[in-house]
Amino acid sequence: MPKITTQSQADTSIQMVPLFLLLLHITTVSVADLRPGFYSETCPKAESIVRDVMKKALIREPRSLASVMRFQFHDCFVNGCDASMLLDDTPTMLGEKLALANINSLRSYEVVDEVKEALEKVCAGVVSCADIIIMASRDAVALTGGPDWGVRLGRLDSLGASQEDSNNIMPSPRSNASYLIDLFQKYNLSVKDLVALSGSHSIGQGRCFSIMFRLYNQSGTGRPDPAIEPKFREKLDKLCPLTVDQNMTGDLDATPVIFDNQYFKDLVSGRGFLNSDQTLFTFPQTRKFVELYSKDQDQFFKDFVEGMLKMGDLQSNQPGEIRRKCRVVNGLQPNIFGKLRREREDSYNVLRRNSRFC
């Protein structure tokens, strides 16, 4: 597990691009450099531009906001909040998009592309893709009925990505609360942070792929997870029969387009979609927070914001840049590795079927 810089931690490593790509204006950033209003002089309309694009995305496809919101978690836990997850594969680098936790799961990258394009028209080369993820994640929550908050900005974009680190770090839908607690503690995130941030599943959908073992072979028993409420299990059985296309999706809670505390109410009633969700209620150390948030939405919102801010402070302190396009480091041309990416995606789909993420 690589170390990540938080308010009290330091240093990690990241897979770097070749030296000839380390062009001008490469620098480093620390947590102390992050602050609200970072672009107030250099790009004063930055935050409003991001929100405008997110509003359009909500109208076009509501599910896209849930996808973009989860970018912050998938980015920040892998070598800090540096937009490494947005990089496409190159002949010399395996990016994180095809990591086991991301392939066929993360989507709506084009929303970030739209945000970046809009920002580049107004203030070229100023706003980082890493900061776009932080702002867009906040906006996804606020625009769907959740809390709004001031974000700390000033991050740089990574010069590379590490599919291996993503595979080693990101949890699977099989994860239990004990494993998740240990993982979050490595980033100075508490049990409370874990449960509150899991509330991000208040919006969006999950795939049948992620719950087949819960329905038909929990813990190798050949039986369904006994924690699933019987009528809810019947609903899931119809949604995800053994013969289903496992990319079929189901709602993560009963109000999948509204950010609220329904997610926690569902966990209390045994109607959590993912194993990694329901385990938060069955495990004593996390259960008390699930019960609290199921009754007190204001407290959930408060703790969720606190957790998002803490997660947004994860930094690698490695050299970075402001990418002109979020999918490639400066100096590389976008869209020239499409065939390579498709070939790798086919290979990883095969690998995934036999992985711990099944």
TrEMBL record:
Cofactor(s) listed: Ca(2+); heme b
Site (Transition state stabilizer): 70
GO annotations of cellular component type: extracellular region
Disulfide bonds: 43-123, 76-81, 129-326, 208-240
Active-site residues (renumbered): 74 (proton acceptor)
Chief location category: secreted
Positions contributing to heme b binding: 201
Positions contributing to substrate binding: 171
PROSITE patterns linked: PEROXIDASE_1, PEROXIDASE_4
Protein residues bound to Ca(2+) 2: 253, 255, 260
EC number(s) per entry: 1.11.1.7
A molecular function GO annotation: metal ion binding
Cofactor note: Binds 2 calcium ions per subunit. Binds 1 heme b (iron(II)-protoporphyrin IX) group per subunit.
Subcellular location: Secreted
Residue span, Plant heme peroxidase family profile domain: 33-330
Keywords: Calcium, Disulfide bond, Glycoprotein, Heme, Hydrogen peroxide, Iron, Metal-binding, Oxidoreductase, Peroxidase, Secreted, Signal
EC class of the enzyme, as a word: oxidoreductase
Gene3D superfamilies documented for this protein: 1.10.520.10, Peroxidase, domain 2
Gene Ontology biological process terms, A to Z: hydrogen peroxide catabolic process; response to oxidative stress
Binding site for Ca(2+) 1: 75, 78, 80, 82, 84, 96
UniProt signal peptide: 1-32
Reactions mediated catalytically: 2 a phenolic donor + H2O2 = 2 a phenolic radical donor + 2 H2O
Family: Belongs to the peroxidase family. Classical plant (class III) peroxidase subfamily.
Function text: Removal of H(2)O(2), oxidation of toxic reductants, biosynthesis and degradation of lignin, suberization, auxin catabolism, response to environmental stresses such as wounding, pathogen attack and oxidative stress. These functions might be dependent on each isozyme/isoform in each plant tissue.
Protein's name in the database: Peroxidase
